[in-house]
Amino acid sequence: MGAGTEPDGSSRSDEDWERFLRESVAGVADAPKEPSARARDVAMRLRAEPGRGLEGWRSYTPPRPKRRTGWYAAGLLASLVLLVVVLAPGRIVDLFAGDAPDSPPLAAETARPTQAPPAEAAQRPTMDKPLRGSPAASWASGAAGITVPKAGAVGWMSAAEVERALTRTRDFIVASGLDRGVLRGERPEKAIALINPHQKDVQDLLRTAFRTPSEKNDPLLLFSRFQPSRTHLVGDVVKARGRLTYREGERGALQVTADVTFVYPVTRTDAGGNDEIVRTIVRRELVLSWDDPDKVITEPGTFSLVSHKYDMTNGGCGAPTGYFAPPFGTDRQADEAGTEIDPYDRSAPVRRGESSGEECGRATRS
Predict the structure, then answer these.
(1) In sequence order, what DSSP letters do the residues of 58-96 get, joined into one string?
(2) Backbone angles phi, psi at 265, to 5 degrees
(3) Kind and range of the H or E element at 252?
(4) Beta partners for residue 324, in sequence order
(5) Which of 17, 183, 209, 320 could form a disulfide with 4 if both were Cys (CB 3.0 to 4.6 A apart)?
(6) What is the pLDDT of residues 330-345, one digit of tens each?
(7) Can you tell me the distance from the alpha carbon of 107 to that of 144, in angstroms, rounded to the nearest whole number?
(8) Whole-prediction pTM
(9) C-alpha–C-alpha distance, residues 187 and 303, integer Å
(10) Phi (first) and psi of residue 215, to 5 degrees
(11) For the segment 9-56, what is each residue's pLDDT rounded down to a tens digit?
């Protein structure tokens, strides 16, 4: 092999070779160095392989991308979405609506509202969130939802006596509409104990209502009850919203008006995995008289019932049984023939009178 010949037979120019020898002898720092035997061998093999050209031995050429299948994937996805919409439209509404952020607690009601609460986003209630999609989600729970006004002297009562009477009135509302045992169908003994035992018409109602309920003598006029073999409450919370007001009544009595709405989320006892939830909504307006014992026959710590009204939706429209009978599934269609009523509209007066024989109300929302 000649002095200026490369391993593959190519030759360097005389000028390059002379410069190489001169700089090697002089020890120039960046003098060109003769390739090692391994480097020369690699260079020969790379040049010998067809199609490699001048590509470096450490270089990398990425593989060509696969053929796109976007249209096929998009069509398949659209078909699946269409199938879900047909089979479960409610779930799709929930998916896109999402869970609205928790509403801030509503301020206590101190006067009759001037309008109904705004509509909520359409969302299905769940076992974990039975009040989802309801205006009652921002209401206070239980007795906290009943506003008791500041007491002042009225008629024969001092301010302190009025305060005790208002507290006992609220106790009656709690015992009749929020007590868990009563809601499970038990007899409301605590509530009954607060009613004047000398008021004959009311005592007649109480004697017959639980034994043989009828349109005239229906315990639901005063008490909220569900039949445990058919229905049970969902969760530990019942929402309530309302207020007590008072004034001087007949013969100097303290007359208290209680106007309270209750929202009961319930499901079937024998649901068998079906999580259908119905909200029974009840609004009662009771007028009570705390009478002067010197003028009316009464017992200490009891009141006389002056009047009672109530509105009820999603509680059943059949013959009285002494229990609310929320409609589930196809039974709900039978309850959709009554007069429309917004059960959350507390700006309107209570619609129904002393008996439950009037036409059932059909809830515009629940």
Answers:
(1) T---PPPPPPP-HHHHHHHHHHHHHHHHHH-HHHHHHHH
(2) -80, 125
(3) none
(4) 226
(5) 17
(6) 777 655 566 788 999 9
(7) 11
(8) 0.72
(9) 19
(10) -60, -35
(11) 555 566 665 676 666 555 555 555 555 665 566 556 656 655 544 444
